[in-house]
Specification:
Blueprint (H helix, E strand, L loop, with lengths): L9 E4 L19 E5 L15 E7 L9 E2 L10 E2 L12 E12 L2 E5 L8 E7 L6
Antiparallel strand pairs: 1-2, 1-8, 2-7, 3-6, 3-8, 4-5, 6-7
Length: about 130
């Protein structure tokens, strides 16, 4: 199989540091956080503005890449399920997908809400969230 190289464009700055204590989904108490992009990506932020919702792709660098099955939500009373049927962070390619709301932009720092990623999580990409009216 072909391998691909991904290069982070920045990192998450968050109060979340303990994976076990972090919310599993954004609506379960995810705090505000900052997306801190490398300065060379400043032109790529042109067109984004506070009030916009975006898709954030992260690399879940603390994930177990060998895990193929999990108990959904870590509840051992639930039967094992394949990771592709869950949103578990442990998976062969631990790419995080987050819908976040932009609160402010300060240079290459983007203040967002609804991000359940841990502090220092690598950022892979930011994409606009398309709506029916685009």
């Amino acid at each position: 199989m072909t391998e691909y190289t991904l290069r982070p464009i920045g990192r998450v700055e968050s109060t979340l540091t303990d994976r076990a204590a972090a919310p599993r989904q954004p609506d379960e108490g995810a705090p505000e956080a900052w997306l801190v992009l490398d300065d060379r990506y400043a032109p790529a932020l042109d067109g984004l503005a506070p009030g916009a919702d975006v898709l954030l792709l992260t690399w879940l660098d603390r994930a177990d890449r060998e895990r193929l099955t999990v108990h959904p939500r870590g509840e051992t009373t639930r039967p094992l399920s394949g990771v592709f049927a869950t949103r578990a962070p442990d998976r062969p390619n631990p790419i995080g997908l987050h819908v976040v709301h932009i609160l402010a932009i300060d240079g290459t720092r983007v203040h967002v809400r609804n991000l359940e990623a841990l502090d220092a999580t690598p950022i892979l990409d930011v994409k606009p969230l398309l709506t029916p009216d685009r």
